[in-house]
Amino acid sequence: MAHPLALSYDWRPATTIVSVGLVVCVGIVLRSAAPGRWAVAAVLAALWLGFLVVVWARTRAFLMVDGPELTLRRFRRFQTVHGKEVVRVRQFLTPHGPSYGLVTRGPDGRERQVVAPVALLRTGHSTLFGWLLTQAPQAELDRGSTRTLEQLRIRGLVV
User: Which CATH number fits domain 62-154: 2.30.29.30, 3.30.2010.10, 3.40.50.2300, 2.80.10.50?
Assistant: First the structure.
């Protein structure tokens, strides 16, 4: 039975610290008699909410290998890719490291790109490239993907 990859970070400590900091800061601001304290408290709450949205979006990363199928999710929808459908692999940089767009060609001949958010997942790079080598050897790798594959081979993470 296939299992999804774990996130490469633990989101709970960061959200706990930020939430405690928000309560402390809002408490200090509201206890002061300064004019505009409600506006400052609202701005702090909006920043906290923005932080939580970013953390939530990062926790949506999902990758699971089940034989010839690769199931992915970046934000909302799950997408399943079959190895024989992958045409090209394109690397793009994120603040957390490189992730990859898999260009697939469906039975109707149309190309679409699905994103593999491997930078947010533990063992994401080695899992994705191991799957590509075994299930999609026909996939064309761009320069960045080729460099990553070479590094994974040097480190012994991919055969």
Answer: 2.30.29.30
> In order along the chain (159 residues), what is the average pLDDT of each group of 10 residues?
82 94 95 92 96 91 93 89 95 92 92 93 94 94 95 92
Task: Please check whether residue 87 is in contact with residue 103, taking contact to mean a CB–CB distance below 8 angstroms.
Answer: yes
At residue 120, what is the residue type? L
Tokens 């459908």 belong to 85
pTM over 0.90: no
Place of tokens 């793009």: 92
Q: 19 and 48 in contact (C-beta within 8 Å)? A: yes
Q: How far is CA 129 from the centre of its chain?
A: 16
